[in-house]
Write a structure and sequence with these properties.
eight-stranded mixed sheet; 180 residues; single chain
Length: 180
Amino acid sequence: MMIEPIEAFRAAEYQVKFATCPWERERAHALRQAVFCREQGIFRGSDRDAVDETAIPIVALSMLGVVADDVVGTVRIHEPEPGLWWGSRLAVHRDYRKIGALGATLIRLAVSSAHAMGAHTFLAHVQVQNALLFRRLHWSVLEEVEIHGKPHLRMQADLSHYPPCFSPEAGFVALPRKAA
């Protein structure tokens, strides 16, 4: 009798929320290291900077039923001056990038939670290859810039498309798209 190989497990849903546990913050940073240091080579050693001291990390967790399994996506937000918020270090694990809902849901929670905390402006420096996703999510390009030797776009979210989220610790559920 021949046994068929089991396909790689994919969670049925993902929870996107503020990182509230130390392990979530640690895994979010490990994911950033994997993406920005090892995979993209943007930073040497570490991508940590002064923003991490005040930033709020947001994570996408793969769920096994009601239990979180791992951090598969992350972004951070911070407010350098009252009402002006920035999102940065958006990263999704390589094995989960085809689950289109993850990046979009991370962005949605980032902007919606900042909106609830008084944002009048939400900005991000977006790598050029990700601009289409942001445009689809109601962001506009303000200018082209170079950051760490890579082309980026300074973009602004249209806050009218992001209702305030007053429960970011619970966050949103991201469901994978059904295969066609």
